[in-house]
Amino acid sequence: MSGKKYLRPMEMPVKAAQESRPFPRISIANIEWSARSVRHRQQQLRQLHATLLKYKDECVQAIEEDFRYTPNEALFAYSLTLKDIRIHYDSVSLSEENAKARKVEQEQDNPVRSVPVGIVYIIPTAGLHCVISPVAAALAAGNCIVVELPRTTGHTNSLLQNTLREAMSNDTFAISTTRPDTAFLAECQIVSQTDLVLGTSAPRTVFSPPAARCFAFVDREADVQLAARNIVHARCGFGARSLYAPEIVFVHEAVLKLFKYYLEQVWTARRPQKQADARKLPGKSEISSRSSPDGLINLLSGPGCEVIEVQDRNEKMLFSHTDYSTLVLCSIDSTDDGIDLATDICGNEGIAAAFFFASPSAANYLSTSLNAHLSFINHIPTELLVGPRIPTNSDGSLVPRYPRHLFEETHPQICKPSEITTSLGTQIENSGNLEAWARSTAKPLLSDELPGRRVDFFEQALITAASVSVLSLVTVGVLGSILVRRLR
């Protein structure tokens, strides 16, 4: 035998090969599976939670200053971040992980076996929750993590860099102030909260499109006061910067006047008294007199937010993204009118979220007719207003914003032969059961329709239209025959 020493893959000398690459320690940890250890994941999540608690006052103050949140809003955003970490920590269990790992040893199938994707590269927008939420999810799944945090003048960004460096292991976590080369990114799963298109061949991308728009609908049977309260809170709360605040509200003309009334009531109640006194609130006569030649009416305005009614449907404000502080009202004469207008406005861009204030039947019709990623009926969740957009490949989870499964791949382990394999065996040519099994696949497909079944919404509409047409023809025929008899 030769004197060569053959090394297993885990023992390969990778240090020299990785030195010229960005984040060599991350690459080595990924090869050695360092981040997959259950105890490592638990320890890192505990440390992250404890470090954020340590700097609670600094975090809340930074959120207030950078994003113009009220003290209560800043505390809510901070606490929501801790909630994400807690949920992910509870999902990591040593006993459960060990039980799953031993299923094959016990000759049991493990069809939902999942493994980490490897390295997760996070490109956040801004804010504590935008950064920590994907970090906690990727960490709970057992991945190495790189977060892109460019140097800025914001207090939150600086605090995040210091907090993460103190809490996280340098072997499995890193912060990048610049974008690494495409060769490194191609080996990562990229989490993008921006519209930036990366020219990489990354195996998977978790994308949160911030450009998709958000609409609200107030139907004629809606609780108008509830709608006004939710919409004003969403658009004007949290520094008037929420990515899920509705940009345009389509209000049925039958309740438009009442909606404006409640809108002003809620608007006034939200403002500090000194600001409310300083702001001139338009009355009914003032609203009509403030119409501009371009079809825009400035209904309400105040510190950081304004409400504008659009009367001309060709107005460019409807078709372009408005400022975060602007809420646009548009009158519609029916649900179909609102659906058509919203579809024309968003085009191929899609709708990030739609909020329907309507009766259950109308809300169901609206939500099934519009291509919205998320639909909410008669409420706007408070937790939705903080943090990044929900990823397009997510199941719509609000808390945590990034479910752990987004950072895992399914690698099933199957021990037991399938029913087909069991019945036919491995030698199909010699199987006596093949003909019987083939006949079973050729059996006619039975219908589950029963006599007198309930027709759906669209079928009912067709039946109604046909009935009206037939009734009209019968009526004309009867009247015609009577007239002919009288003329005779």
UniProtKB/TrEMBL annotation:
UniProt keyword list: Membrane, Transmembrane, Transmembrane helix
GO molecular function: oxidoreductase activity, acting on the aldehyde or oxo group of donors, NAD or NADP as acceptor
Renumbered residue ranges of the record's region Disordered: 274-295
Sequence intervals crossing the membrane: 461-484
InterPro entries: Ald_DH/histidinol_DH, Ald_DH_C, Ald_DH_N, Aldehyde_DH_dom
Cell cycle found in the keyword field: no
Keyword Hydrolase: no
Domain of life, source organism: Eukaryota
Aldehyde dehydrogenase domain: residues covered: 32-167
One Pfam family recorded for the sequence: Aldedh
Protein name (Swiss-Prot/TrEMBL): Aldehyde dehydrogenase domain-containing protein
Classification lineage: Eukaryota, Fungi, Dikarya, Ascomycota, Pezizomycotina
